[in-house]
Amino acid sequence: MIQMATEAIVIRNVEIELLTACPECGGRLDTDSRRGETYCGGCGVVVRDKQIDNGRHERAYDKEQADKRLHDHKTTLMRHDRGLGSVISSDLRDSWGAPVGNRLQWRRMIEQNTRATFHSSRSRTLNNGLVIIKDYVAARELPSALEERAVAIYRKAHAGNYLRGRSTEDVAAASLYAAGKDLSLGIVPTDFKDIIGVDKRSALRTYKTLLRNLDGLENTQSSARAFVPRLCEALSVPPRIQQDALELCSAIERLPGRAHKPTMLAAGIVYVAANERGHYMTQIEVTAKANISEPSLRSIALYINQVRERMESSAVRADPP
Q1: What is the pLDDT of residues 229-253, one digit of tens each?
Q2: Domain extents in the chain
Q3: How far, in Å, CA of 77 to CA of 139, rounded?
């Protein structure tokens, strides 16, 4: 005979015994919160069922509570229906974990739900664009703030009928590019070719269209600081060199002078900072990751060294011995 393992707890001066092991085989007890059952993981006997659900109470006693229960759902702009639509999973089980119908009936339910969700071609186009933005952010492991900003821009373009005559991929890429410029995340138009399939020319042409027609969208100048961390990660540069490159970038961008492309300036700064720290890299490696030419890298590196010499000489004159 197996002795039952129990544990006594006291609630409101009432002692209650709780089972801690299976009364049949002495095995470990597991709890299924979806079914409200406690069962043995060894022999499968159900020790306790019909447990109390301490979650949110959905019952409404008047019309005000009923309206609150109906509309008190979290909405999100990341989905085309703002998260208010139904989601049917493909594991043939309901919310309680019980099997429902056969596979043919389940597929028919999913198909009918899809038809009801995408009631027009505009809603389907909106959903396709949001999926493209989500997949790009996930593939590049970019912050969620970029997705939120890009979705807001894409929704404005969709509401203004600026997708007419343009592909969904072009508008989604342009929205991502505009959001990256607003957030200074260092996104360049050449990044969309591998993931979205949009070339640089199409992305920039669509971006200029959105820039002319959408309110609140400004052509902010990209900073080289936004491209330095990404370039250092691609070149496997130590953190100390990245910190030196960021400091040098801030100092050079504050100086008046000729303007350079942010990607080219970031590549030259990382190249110079890495060589000074003894982390030597070839020009081919840097130009391949920065998508610039070798003559451009040599020219910007020469310019950075000249600027640093002028900065050091001015610092010496300002602090005489």
Answers
A1: 888 888 888 888 888 888 888 888 7
A2: 6-48, 75-117, 121-213, 224-315
A3: 20
DSSP 4-59: PPEEEEEETTEEEEEE-S-TTT---EEEETTTTEEEETTT--EEE-S----S----
* The CATH number of domain 224-315, selected from 3.30.110.40, 3.50.50.60, 1.10.472.10, 3.20.20.370: 1.10.472.10
Amino acid at 236: S
**Paired strand residues for 8:** 17
φ/ψ region of 82 (left if φ > 0, alpha if ψ in -120 to 50, else beta) reads left
CATH topology of domain 121-213: Cyclin A; domain 1 (1.10.472)
Q: For residues 8 and 14, give the distance between their C-alpha atoms in angstroms, rounded to a whole number.
A: 10
Can you read off the two tokens belonging to residue 223? 């900073």
CA distances in angstroms from 128 to 80, 172, 229, 231, listed in the order given: 9, 9, 31, 31
Q: Is 176 helix (H, G, I), strand (E, B) or coil?
A: helix
116-156 pLDDT tens trace: 777 778 888 888 888 899 999 888 888 888 888 999 999 98
Each residue of 13-39: pLDDT tens digit?
434 345 667 777 777 778 777 677 888
The answer to whether the 121-213 and 224-315 domains have the same CATH topology is yes
Q: 10 Å Cβ neighbour count for 242?
A: 19
For 223, the 3-state DSSP assignment is coil
The per-type count for the chain, helices as H runs and strands as E runs, is: 12, 5
The Cβ-side half-sphere exposure at 104, using a 13 Å CA radius, reads: 0
Residues 162/213, Cβ–Cβ less than 8 Å: yes
Domain 6-48 matching CATH 1.20.1250: the answer reads no
Mean pLDDT within 183-192: 82
Burial 24-58 (b: 16+ CB within 10 A, else e): eeebebeeeeeeeebbbeeeeeebeeeeeeeeeee
Of 61-75, 216-230, 241-255, give the lowest mean pLDDT range. Answer: 61-75
